[in-house]
Structures are given as C-alpha cells and as structure tokens.
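Subject: for your reference before the review

Hello V.,

The reviewers asked for a structural picture of the protein, and I figured it would be easier to keep everything in one thread rather than splitting it across files. Below is the amino acid sequence we used in the manuscript, unchanged from the supplementary table.
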Amino acid sequence: MELREVVQKYLAVAGGYGKQVPIAALGISHAEAEQAFDVLDEDYLISRFFHFHIGDGERFQINGFPQTDILIEAEIQEIL
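And here is what came back from the structure prediction:
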C-alpha cells in the first residue's frame, strides 16, 4: 500500500490531520495494515509524521510493538 493511499484513508476517517484515530477504522485488513505500517514506520522521512498510540481497541503489531491508534501530522503533505 502506497503512502498516499494510507493518508487518504486516514483523512477519510479523521476528517483532517492531527487527529488520533483507530487503525482498525481505516478499512485496511489487519495483515495489510501491519505490513504497510511496518514499512512506512521504518522510513525516517515518513515515520516522523506518524504517531502511533496504544489504547483500547484492536491491536496491531507495528515493528514489534502493539498499537491501536494513529495520528498523522499535516506536514506529511511535504512528501506526498
């Protein structure tokens, strides 16, 4: 899954940047979400705009750490 597609899915759920939303709400299969976020989180130019959180809800293993939510900063637009 490409970065632009992930951001579009996030914006559809969040309604804008800077809002924490459940990863499960993005409409991506569990396996696809884990794989996509693993890859994106390993890229420093991308990962600095992603903020993962652990809370209540479905847990995803992102680079070996359980996460439930994501927040994407508006500055990610610089690299889209």
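For the response letter, the relevant points are probably these. The chain has one domain: 3-79. The helical segments are 3-14, 30-42, 44-47.

Happy to draft the paragraph if you're swamped.

O.
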